[in-house]
Amino acid sequence: MRGLRVRAVVLAAGLATRLRPLTNARPKALLTVVGRPLIETTLDRLAEAGVEAAAINLHYRGDEIAAAVGTEWRGMPLHYSREPEILGTLGALGPLRDFLAPAELVVVVNGDSLCRWPLEELVATHLAGESLSTLLLIRRADPAAFGPVRVGSDGSIVSFPGAEPVRPAVSEHVFGGAHVFGSDLLELVPPGRSDSVIDLYRPGVRDGMRLGSYESDQPWHDLGNGRRYLEAVLDWAEVTTRDSYRDDGAEISERATLESCAVETAVSIEAGARCLRCLVLPGVRVGAGCELEEVVLGDGVELPPATRLSRMLVTRAEWGRVTESTTAGGVVHTPLGV
């Protein structure tokens, strides 16, 4: 990518409703992933790849995102596009036409996905082809869970979820939320709200638009709900069956048992507690003798001794609740998959 004028857009305007009540207290882009906010992992990759400037669209708690990452990232200038009403994954590009105008190529990345984005490979594939846009497809994700994107023998996309293939398909994968295109695509962005797949790519393929693909084996996670957030962080931290990630600022009793967990800073886990496949966010206190399995403990939660929980997102009462939540011991329990 060096030598090319590449600008990027990070989509961070979502409401994160499926992660509430956790995201009642912060935007999804600032969720903690191994000691850092999620959005920092994406900005790192953009800067490393040589992107000359990046824009971030904002809506829900957007000022918190801007305050957290500032006006530049590792020498890469940052520009903010505030959306009083959410414009969608395609509509977000409309207000950014002037920002994107100097670029030879534009990279768009979903801000709520966790991936070591293969940006150089994606751009190289695009430059080698003749496609209007080239999309990152993830081999390791389940097409049945996210919807299949089907690819023909020449690497071009022949259908998106909800549409029949326009030509025979040889494989199907999941759209990873990153794509690259030339500035001419901006002429196809309609005013107002629109979605890149539903309103441009899916009908475009039907009408003969050529879209390329780069298929990646990189780990990729959509942090759509509590369960996916847990799985994403454990994968990112590279925990094993027996080992766990422990921040240096965590205080864990020698008589506590951790298996396949990620424990953030300023955490206290008392004697006799047993945690299996848990994500323990900053400031949490786990009382003695607690038994936890597949639990996400939100910032500042205090669990009374001998609490037993399985497959739950636990948050502080002041963060509110959703329909499926219950309250016990001064905290809110929400099923992980909600």
Overall pLDDT score: 94
Count up the helices.
8
Helix content range:
10-25%
Q: Which parts are unreliable, with pLDDT below 50 for 5 consecutive residues or more?
A: none
Strand content: 25-35%
Spatial separation of the terminal alpha carbons: 40 Å
Structural class given helices, strands, pairing? Answer: alpha/beta
> Biggest sheet: strands, sense, closure?
10 strands, mixed
* Strands, total number: 27
What is the overall shape?
Answer: elongated
Radius of gyration: 21 Å
Layout of secondary structure:
Layout: E1 6-11, E2 32-33, E3 36-37, H1 38-48, E4 53-58, H2 62-69, E5 72-73, E6 76-82, H3 88-91, H4 97-100, E7 105-110, E8 113-115, H5 119-128, E9 133-138, H6 143-146, E10 149-151, E11 157-159, E12 171-182, H7 196-206, E13 211-216, E14 220-222, H8 226-236, E15 245-246, E16 251-252, E17 257-259, E18 262-263, E19 268-269, E20 274-276, E21 279-280, E22 285-286, E23 291-297, E24 302-303, E25 308-316, E26 326-328, E27 331-335
Parallel strand pairs: 1-4, 1-7, 4-6, 9-13, 15-18, 16-19, 17-20, 18-21, 19-22, 20-23, 21-23, 22-24, 23-25
Antiparallel strand pairs: 2-3, 5-6, 7-12, 8-14, 9-12, 10-11, 10-12, 25-27, 26-27
